[in-house]
Amino acid sequence: MVGPGGLLVGITRTVLESALDAELDAHLDEVGVDEETGRRTNIRNGHGAKTVQTEVGPVRIQVPRDRAGSFTPRIVPKHVRRLDGFNEAILSLYAKGLTTGEISAHLADVYDADVSRELISRVTDSVLDEMEAWRQRPLDRIYPVVFIDALVMKIRQGQVANRPVYVVVGISLDGERDVLGMWAGTGGEGAKQWAGYLTELRNRGVEDVFMVCSDGLKGMTDAIEQVWPQAVHQQCVVHLVRASLRYTNRKDWQKITPTLREIYTAPTVAAAEARFEAFAAEFGDQYPAVIRLWRTSWPQFVPFLDYDHEVRKVLYTTNIIESLNARFRQAARRRGHFPTEQAAMKVLYLVVQQKRKGGGSITGRVYGWAKALNALILAYGDRITI
Fold first, then answer.
1. DSSP letter at 369?
2. d(CA 114, CA 320)
3. Is 189 helix (H, G, I), strand (E, B) or coil?
4. pLDDT (tens digit, 9 = 90+) per residue, 24-72?
5. Domain spans in the chain, listed from the N-terminal domain onward
6. Three-class DSSP category at 263
7. pLDDT digits (tens, 9 = 90+) for 83-142
8. 271, 273, 276, 282 alpha-carbon torsion, rounded to 10°
């Protein structure tokens, strides 16, 4: 795959040389033709060999020359001996949702390079060993907060089927958020499957979690306590509000939404209970399903109300993981479905690893974590070792 005669070196050489030839053609066209002779005023003048260092190692390329010596390439500038980013560009395009065929066409349009879909597929397959090592890597002993959620993806298994992909994001004691694991399940999302995947995290070193934030999937509290008996299950407030609105008429949302906000921003649990009872008295006859939903979810809703504003901002929503899922869906949307489970997980892994300019990456430090950590130390000090 790598090395002087490796596949990645060959692809890089093809792309660079094709791009340089296209650059020289454009340069010669700009110079134009002598009006008296009808001939080009500048023409090709062979090639010069040059070795450049790339992310796949040294690549020996042939750089085209012009007779006038006026050609100044931009793809491989003169005197430059190090280049980075070509194979990363292929992986980045793949992570953004482009298929191998679309990437091949992109390279042909931009670099005038003939790189087959099969070769591009082999480039993207080069991350499989890295992905497997990432999925098995040891994890921290303690994660104060863990977010769990699942999204549905279309994967072919004989025939195309909707399959849940389980995702776990954790925040470390240092305030670093990271994707701890991803698994492609079968059937519908279930608490029993979650218990198995959370057990895998424990086997990889996660001995203790203070709070696990999720949606209101039935049986989730038992699944969490089976793996981490001391963990508190916090239901995502955003999920709870969305579920409530599904049971109501849109014309009433302007009245209901502010009232629900008063409940989940209450200063104490007692205040939240009082506000909920007032809400139930006002809307209970019209929307009994909403009242029943909140009463059923109440034990998993109230834990975060015991903390101050800084901790609440971290705990009350699974937006961290929903943002990741949105990027997953964006990458999957163009494909329609994936031919195999491995193909699906490969794309999701590349999305996780993708770094965005100007911030917005999946991994990174949680803003304002120091204040949240201080509050967590007061609550769980006997379980925290820094």
1. H
2. 40
3. coil
4. 888 887 777 766 666 778 888 899 898 887 766 788 888 999 888 888 8
5. 7-126, 140-383
6. helix
7. 656 666 677 777 776 777 777 787 777 655 666 777 677 767 777 888 899 999 999 999
8. -90
